[in-house]
Recover the amino acids of this structure.
């Protein structure tokens, strides 16, 4: 049985879809068999970010409503060893499926995959409930912004209230330069508010946006600097203890000051 | 003595409506009567009908103590006296209004300033500035009204056309309790403070059958914390202790003092009838003395609430906005010391908590 991981955030636009795509690729490149599921029914975009749009035949709703077997709805990503995408439907909406159907589906998927990554829609309504219904683990994606943190806090509250799942945190679009100028929350601020385990930090980088637009997620290129963040997160999910990428969060003057012990 | 005691399947109804004598005599009479037939009344619940007699917490304490030996607990008070009605409601009893007018609201009582100061009578007098002054501002909390603690059946009994002495009415009342006891264990939990376990077994925080979580399943904005236990020594409700962080969207309400062992995050609410103590960071919304007690305090290890209310007074964040609007919402320079807020001269003041030099 594979693990079912749901990526969720509460707020929209923090990078759930991008993170799901890159994390799926990183896990697959680490030799895992991965299925990424787009649970954002009605706003289908995980397939676009992964560059698999043209190959979609069936979708999640078709699989749930029995119009095709689940394995036929899966789209294989040929760029990596074993990565499959279960796209969502653009024409239906989130009421098309119910949490228990999602659970049945993910149970089936987890028998054939090591990791099932579910890309949750924004919000805390039915779409969110669907996405976390089957999760064995939840990854909260947040950005260092007040609104995103507030929503993430609420999501963690909901998870603690309704489920037994322990959530872990990915901080996305972290900008060390702004942190250095004390204009953005530091990672310690964020962790002190959300008080959950940190899974990784993804720095803000234009490369991520550019590559997502091209349908060629940045994690595919190990050489790129930012892709290291995703691969590190994947390694941590596999249980390896990988240290955080050091960011230059403090200015050189500050570092010098600390060095000489002032 | 015109006291009627009717035992009926698990509920004893004591009707003292017609009795004008001293309360102590009534209690002695009832206790004596019940102890004569101990086996018949054992482990029963008791509903008290007092007419328009003014009942104080001490009176209830008296009868509670008198009957404790027989394992009989007072669970309900039928009254047509407004202050008795509110008191019973405050104490978590099933309060049933029998007066001709609609049942009184708390706001009306806040202006009368009868009960609120004496809740905190245990506090040394060094900090009793305005205990006698009229609670000039009742709770002007127009938002979530600090309602009665138990979320149980709060509807006043339908005012029956029958005169209050008929047996038929009592049968009705008894049947009502009987029903609620059999069909709805949660109502009983909330309303009568029986020592049963929590109705739900999913208290994930492990340590407490926390009522916050129990009720949070219904509606996070309106989770009321029922009293967990009737207090024996005091007329003040027992403090409620919440272990763990209160996150955005979570609310903790309680008629007495609230203690949070953990952080109160932005977007969370703590509303307490008494003091609010936070052993952690306080960054959410807090309202102490929500029923009008101006002597309530708010204390926290790290004191950065978004908004602070004590009784009818409101204070914005004590540190003020910094140069970056929005930023202070989450992060302000904290003094790094525990601080305490209280009302002095109709204003909320926040002072560092000085060990040993505290005001009381």
């Amino acid at each position: 049985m594979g693990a079912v991981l749901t990526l969720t955030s509460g707020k929209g636009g923090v990078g759930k879809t991008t993170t799901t795509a890159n994390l799926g690729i990183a896990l697959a490149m680490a030799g895992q068999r991965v299925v990424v599921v787009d649970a954002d029914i009605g706003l289908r975009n995980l397939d676009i970010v992964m560059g698999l749009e043209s190959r979609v035949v069936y979708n999640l709703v078709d699989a749930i409503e029995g119009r095709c077997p689940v394995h036929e709805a899966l789209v294989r990503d040929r760029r990596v060893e074993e990565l499959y995408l279960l796209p969502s439907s653009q024409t239906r909406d989130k009421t098309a499926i119910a949490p228990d159907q999602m659970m049945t589906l993910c149970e089936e998927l987890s028998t054939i995959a090591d990791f099932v990554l579910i890309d949750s829609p924004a919000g805390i309504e039915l779409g969110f409930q669907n996405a976390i219904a089957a999760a064995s683990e939840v990854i909260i994606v947040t950005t260092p912004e007040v609104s995103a943190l507030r929503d993430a806090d609420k999501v963690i509250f909901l998870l603690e209230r309704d489920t037994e799942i322990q959530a872990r945190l990915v901080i996305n679009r972290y900008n060390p330069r702004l942190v250095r100028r004390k204009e953005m929350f530091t990672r310690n601020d964020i962790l002190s508010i959300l008080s959950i385990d940190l899974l990784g930090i993804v720095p803000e980088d234009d490369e991520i946006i550019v590559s997502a637009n091209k349908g060629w997620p940045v994690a595919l290129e190990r050489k790129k600097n930012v892709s290291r963040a995703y691969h590190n997160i994947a390694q941590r999910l596999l249980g390896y203890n990988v240290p955080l990428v050091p960011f230059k969060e403090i200015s050189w003057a500050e570092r010098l000051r600390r060095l000489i012990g002032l | 003595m015109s006291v009627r005691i009717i035992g009926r399947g698990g509920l004893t109804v004591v009707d003292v409506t017609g009795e004008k004598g001293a309360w102590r005599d009534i209690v002695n009479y009832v206790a004596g009567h019940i102890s004569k037939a101990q086996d018949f009344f054992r482990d029963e619940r008791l509903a008290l009908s007092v007419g328009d007699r003014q009942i104080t917490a001490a009176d209830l304490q008296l009868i509670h103590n008198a009957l404790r030996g027989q394992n009989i607990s007072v669970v309900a008070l039928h009254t047509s006296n407004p202050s008795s009605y509110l008191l019973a409601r405050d104490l978590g009893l099933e309060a049933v209004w029998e007066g001709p007018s609609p049942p009184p609201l708390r706001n009306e009582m806040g202006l009368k300033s009868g009960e609120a100061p004496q809740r905190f009578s245990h506090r040394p007098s060094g900090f009793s500035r305005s205990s006698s002054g009229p609670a000039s501002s009742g709770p002007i909390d127009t938002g979530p009204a600090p309602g009665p603690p138990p979320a149980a059946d709060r509807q006043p009994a339908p005012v029956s056309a029958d005169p209050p002495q008929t047996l038929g009415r009592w049968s009705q009342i008894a049947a009502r309790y009987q029903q609620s006891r059999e069909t709805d264990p949660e109502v009983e939990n909330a309303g009568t403070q029986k020592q049963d376990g929590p109705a739900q077994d999913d208290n994930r925080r492990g340590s407490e059958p926390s009522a916050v979580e129990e009720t949070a399943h219904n509606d996070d904005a309106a989770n009321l914390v029922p009293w967990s236990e009737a207090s024996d020594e005091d007329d003040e409700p027992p403090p409620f202790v919440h272990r763990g962080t209160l996150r955005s969207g979570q609310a903790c309400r309680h008629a007495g003092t609230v203690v949070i062992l953990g952080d109160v995050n932005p977007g969370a609410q703590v509303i307490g009838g008494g003091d609010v103590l936070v052993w952690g960071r306080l960054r959410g919304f807090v309202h102490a003395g929500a029923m009008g007690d101006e002597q309530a305090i708010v204390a926290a290890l790290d004191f950065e609430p978004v908004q602070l209310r004590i009784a009818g007074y409101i204070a914005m964040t004590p540190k003020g906005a910094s140069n970056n609007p929005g930023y202070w919402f989450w992060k302000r320079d904290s003094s790094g010391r525990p601080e305490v807020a209280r009302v002095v001269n109709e204003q909320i003041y926040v002072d560092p908590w000085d060990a040993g030099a505290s005001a009381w």
The CA atoms of residues 71 and 236 of chain A lie 28 Å apart. The mean pLDDT of chain A is 92. The beta strands of chain A are 3-8, 34-38, 75-76, 83-86, 115-119, 137-142, 167-174, 197-203. The longest strand of chain A covers residues 167-174.
